[in-house]
Specification:
heterodimer, A: mainly alpha, two-stranded antiparallel ribbon, 2 strands, B: elongated
């Protein structure tokens, strides 16, 4: 298992990993609550995270390790199209600014911990609550598995082979999440984010000088795409609608996920969230620059077995080994924060919207915390087994569907914050149609996220999730009108 | 009304064919790249202006 390991890189990696593991366990005593045996404390860190903690936590949780690997890999493979992550992670913040403080306030006032709680509070419907909660858990599971893929790439780059290191790292993660709850990833996020900033700033400052400047990097990438006969540093006309619709759809879906919502609910107030909508784009700048590593891979003339290796290979080729070890540790630790928050978010949903409703309505706050702790453990073990036993493509396909699914919870979760025109049944039917219709479209397109439709001016491809959302809303509105119309129609008939 | 500033990033970024061009370059970056990167600080600034001007009870 220790074949071609570089000692300096390995030592730096292990030292940093030990450091964050220690922090993970110590976190249970950080900003110490009276008791951790309450879901508000274990699962939301006491709802007291201020501007900076929230900035590090949401930043560390939304810009995942998989992003660090996959976005440059996509840009390396296809070029400009891979940059849709940039407009996506820009337009998400005006949305967060406008919507999330409203959501936070309702959740805090009513003591809600999850999206499922908020929906039940707005509509009083157990069915809609269960639909939103189940969608959240299903969409999150493959997302956790993706974090493992990110960690796997970093561990492999270090020269470690086999599955033992991955299993060990995840076991440690599971244990400190169990004991410290959301405080663990919140504390580790400080280290993780600072490390990622150092790595990316070093890369964008030093790599271009070694490769002849940004002009040369774009020229090299251009030449590589021309030679390959596909991709390019600009979008092809056929990619324009996919680019825009993926950016918009992803932005709308991003803060419907349990892990991002957990970061929102855990913050100390609406103004904390608004300030973060101003400050979080710093991470987007980082992501945009990180994406350029894909082009640097072409300029450096890397020969890769897999596109996912572009970032590790770049660091191995252009930096001293200790710094490469630092970069790999940043990626691996980067996987721990989102994986922890995702498992906590999923566990909160299971506990509040399934266990408490259908299994044990009399559960105490301490009982809730206990169920959530065990669930978070099971969720992580499930993701680990999925990665070890199933083909990687399976997790990728599921994650893609997960984005489509989670987007279908938007009408139920967001519309009720602004007006109470809808009743629960139309929203539930809309959700079911969006989910089924979208999944069927994606399936029939060979699990591609784009579907071609013809508005009369030739076919254009659009993000399937957005189409499903449109169907969802249209159905919900139609059914709601029908239900509202029915009693009046009957009344007027009886009157006549 | 000032809240409408929040819509500008959507408009600026969703009309992709407007910025899907190479010229003009800036520091070696084609327009496609620096235009989108420029929207990052711009969006922060617009959001900050709205933040300052909206009074928050909480």
């Amino acid at each position: 298992m220790l074949t071609d390991v570089d000692n300096a890189a390995f030592a730096v990696f292990i030292a940093l990993f030990v450091l964050v593991t220690g922090m993970g366990f110590v976190a249970s005593r950080w900003r110490k609550p009276e008791t951790l045996a309450h879901l508000d404390e274990w699962g939301l860190g006491g709802r007291k995270f201020g501007t900076w903690i929230t900035w590090f936590l949401v930043g560390g949780d939304f810009y995942t390790a998989y992003t660090v690997i996959a976005v440059p890999a996509l840009v390396y493979a296809v070029g400009a199209y891979g940059f849709f992550a940039l407009p996506y992670t820009i337009i998400v913040y005006p949305f967060v600014f406008a919507v999330m403080p409203v959501l936070w306030k309702i959740a805090r006032d009513r003591g809600h911990v999850t999206a499922g709680d908020v929906v039940r509070g707005s509509y009083g419907s157990r069915g809609l609550e269960l639909a939103v909660a189940a969608t959240g858990v299903l969409a999150t599971m493959p997302y956790i598995a993706l974090q493992l893929i990110g960690m796997e790439v970093a561990i492999k780059a270090l020269g470690l082979h086999g599955e033992v290191p991955l299993v060990l790292a995840f076991l440690v993660l599971a244990l400190y999440t169990y004991s410290s709850g959301l405080r663990a990833p919140a504390l580790i996020a400080f280290v993780k984010d600072i490390m990622i900033y150092i790595v990316v700033i070093a890369a964008i400052a030093i790599v271009p000088s070694k490769l002849g400047g940004y002009g040369a990097i774009f020229t090299a990438a251009d030449a590589a795409f021309v030679a390959k006969g596909s991709g390019g540093v600009l979008l092809s006309p056929a990619q324009i609608f996919p680019y825009a619709s993926l950016a918009l759809g992803s932005a709308l879906a991003a803060f419907m996920y349990p892990h991002t919502l957990t970061g929102i609910f855990a913050s100390s107030g609406g103004n904390t969230i608004r300030k973060n909508a101003v400050l979080l784009p710093a991470y987007t700048l980082l992501l945009g620059l990180l994406a350029l590593l894909g082009y640097m891979g072409h300029a450096a003339g890397l020969k890769l077995a897999s596109n996912n290796d572009v970032v590790p290979a770049l660091f191995k080729t252009l930096f001293p080994s200790w710094f490469a070890g630092f970069a790999f540790a940043a990626i691996a630790i980067g996987a721990l924060v989102p994986a922890a928050v995702m498992s906590i978010g999923a566990a909160n949903l299971f506990t509040r919207n399934f266990w408490k409703v259908w299994i044990d309505p009399a559960v105490t706050p301490a009982g809730e915390a206990k169920v959530a702790k065990i669930t978070s453990m099971l969720v992580k073990v499930g993701a680990l087994l999925a990665i070890l036993l199933m083909p990687t493509q399976f997790a990728l396909d599921l994650q893609l569907l997960g984005g489509l699914w989670i987007l279908q919870t938007l009408p139920a979760l967001v519309f009720g914050l602004y007006f109470n025109w809808f009743s629960s049944a139309p929203l539930l039917i809309g959700w079911a149609c969006g989910l089924a219709g979208g999944s069927w479209l994606a399936w029939s397109d060979g699990l591609k996220p784009l579907h071609s439709i013809d508005f009369g001016a030739g076919p254009v491809a659009i993000y399937t999730g957005l189409l499903a959302l449109a169907l969802n809303i249209v159905v919900a509105v139609a059914v709601n009108l029908l239900l509202k119309g029915l009693p009046q129609a009957r009344l007027s008939r009886e009157a006549a | 009304m000032i809240r409408l500033l929040l819509l500008l990033p959507f408009i600026g970024l969703i009309i992709v064919s407007f910025y899907n061009v190479r010229e003009p370059y800036l520091f070696g970056f084609p327009f496609f790249y620096w235009y989108q990167l420029a929207w990052v600080p711009l969006t922060s600034l617009l959001t900050f202006i709205v933040y300052r001007s909206v009074r928050h009870a909480d």
